Amino acid sequence: MSPLLYYALPALGSYVMLSFFLRRPRLLHTPWVPAFRPRLGAHRGGSGERLENTMEAMENSMAQRADFLELDCQLTRDGVVVVSHDKNLSRQTGVNRDVGSLNFEDLPLLKEELEVYFSPGHFARGADRHMMRLEDLFRRFPRTPMSVEVKERNEELIHKIACLVRHYDRNEITIWASEKSSIMKKCKAANPEMPTSFTLSRGFWVLLFYYLGLLPFISIPEKFFMCFLPTIINRTYFPFSHPGLNQLAAVVAKW
């Protein structure tokens, strides 16, 4: 056998095998049937039309046939899990205090208008300016699927979210979300029955394994992948100050 064939034949055989399983992953993995299939999600509860993460925003989103609520949680000083994107209240309320430094009853009202994060120059307004408890949201929408994102490595917050989900029998319809794998690990330990979404690093690795042809041989415990719509980059969302970088980001994200 020539040296060329000695290396070429195994490489070709490996390529054929990887290509075969990449197109037929169900030969190696049992298909997972999701408990729900979200079609219209409300970011921060519907922050494009009402003040973010308020009950009014959630109710408005549901009235427009949203079937999935995305939100973030923080913990107050007296141990109440509240729905809030930011740890610090400056942007939302104008008060330079952390959520964790105040009791729930002392949380300030939201501003009368808040700029829409993915649409600079556009503002959302609403009559409801109160921050709400996660428990109140679970009571109001008991069977609505939700994604709860944890941004800080706060074990007390994670534990309380896990307990609330169990208490209201929402294990299958409440998703753990976090950008950081270290936080997601703690979330899964607190309530392993809740489905998880991809962290940033896990999303990168799955993409890499796909292009290497190894994805069919990799276990994927995550059940959901969540990302903002790539087409908003350089249209209503400008993550970089340089126009050229925004154009490049738009092309790469769409790809």
TrEMBL record:
The chain crosses the membrane at residues 6-22, 203-220. Pfam families: GDPD (PF03009). Gene3D superfamilies: Phosphatidylinositol (PI) phosphodiesterase (3.20.20.190). Signal peptide: none annotated. It catalyses: N,1-di-(9Z-octadecenoyl)-sn-glycero-3-phosphoethanolamine + H2O = N-(9Z-octadecenoyl) ethanolamine + 1-(9Z-octadecenoyl)-sn-glycero-3-phosphate + H(+); 1-O-hexadecyl-sn-glycero-3-phosphocholine + H2O = 1-O-hexadecyl-sn-glycero-3-phosphate + choline + H(+); 1-O-(1Z-octadecenyl)-sn-glycero-3-phospho-N-hexadecanoyl-ethanolamine + H2O = 1-O-(1Z-octadecenyl)-sn-glycero-3-phosphate + N-hexadecanoylethanolamine + H(+); N-hexadecanoyl-1-(9Z-octadecenoyl)-sn-glycero-3-phosphoethanolamine + H2O = N-hexadecanoylethanolamine + 1-(9Z-octadecenoyl)-sn-glycero-3-phosphate + H(+). Its main location: membrane. GO terms for biological process: glycerophospholipid catabolic process; N-acylethanolamine metabolic process. Keywords: Hydrolase, Lipid metabolism, Membrane, Transmembrane, Transmembrane helix. GO terms for molecular function: metal ion binding; phosphatidylcholine lysophospholipase activity; phosphoric diester hydrolase activity. It is found in: Membrane. One of its GO terms (cellular component) is endoplasmic reticulum membrane. Residues 38-255 form the GP-PDE domain. InterPro entries: GDPD-Related (IPR052271), GP_PDE_dom (IPR030395), PLC-like_Pdiesterase_TIM-brl (IPR017946). Belongs to the glycerophosphoryl diester phosphodiesterase family. This is Lysophospholipase D GDPD3 isoform X4. It comes from Bos indicus. The lineage of its organism: Eukaryota, Metazoa, Chordata, Craniata, Vertebrata.
